[in-house]
Amino acid sequence: MSVELELRHDGPPLDFAATFPAGRITALLGPSGSGKTSILRAIAGLLRHGRQMVRVDGEPWSDPRTGWRLPARLRPVGLVPQHYALFPHLTAQGNVEMALQHLPPSLRAQRVRRALALVQVEELATRHPRELSGGQKQRVAVARAIAREPRLLLLDEPFSAVDRGTKRSLYVEILRLHEALGATVVVVTHDLDEAAQLASHLCLVHAGRLLQSGATAEVLAHPCCEEAARLLDIPNVFDGQIGTADAGGQALMRWGPHTLRVADRGPPRGHLRWAIQPGNVLLVRPDKPWDSHLENPVDARVLERVDLGSDALVWLTPAGLENVRLQMRLPARALRRFPVRPGQEVTVCLRAADIVPLRTPGEQGA
Fold it and tell me: How far apart are CA 182 and CA 163, in angstroms?
């Protein structure tokens, strides 16, 4: 089921409009306090103030023009709140049953068994929350959310209270559950890796407004503005100057003493704020015959190298740009073949397709 939203709210501040595609996992990614939880509460019918338009598969759940508001209890939504909100005096089975008070007891028991089985904790049905691990509590909370067979599943920071190893196993369970239910899922998170692993659709949220949305891979590769680049933890954000095009019509950008070809996404002329992912800063090996195929070569000096297991981060100063720090991410296997050390002179390649023009605040509002 698709979800269309237009939300205006003063406290917490929201000026948010977006569409979540049907049958997919959408992640709302943003820092704490950016309004992500309020967006979920508006969909669930728990945010009562402000101007809200919520339309699901074309059906209005909230419409400020008519004053129509579908009560929260009638919305086919399963919500997993932060920290799970399990009743400590009830067993896992009892917690799931609390979502099914509208059903007769015989049907309740059947639904509870099915929900606990779907999240693979049916053997824990008689345990209380204090007897469960963080991951088990999360599964019980999800079981409670899906017991009503919702058309829409809302997960609010569902993995914040569990360790890294448990998170990975829970990612698999959420993806498996999504496949089994075929429901639309909206996940709130401030964890970039979590969003990238779970969601096929990504919304970047900052200060209550939508910065960018689209297919996760596209948003990660091409942030639209500097705020989006910062949310995606891209450290390489620089200033350039777009000038004339080359003989083939491709735009040229001056970056200090360097002339770089850029893709046609940039403005025709003038100042340009741009970004490049550290993984797209390519080390040119001197033993490799690049010849004329080397695109946008930049000479640089190595400032620092930090090894991170399978990868290493390398900070460079490009020639003629002494105050600029360009970050490069290299796999450890590449460093075994061609070691890189502080003080070393190297050449890197910044491909035109990897240079991402960033909109200014004025252009974002255009």
Answer: 28
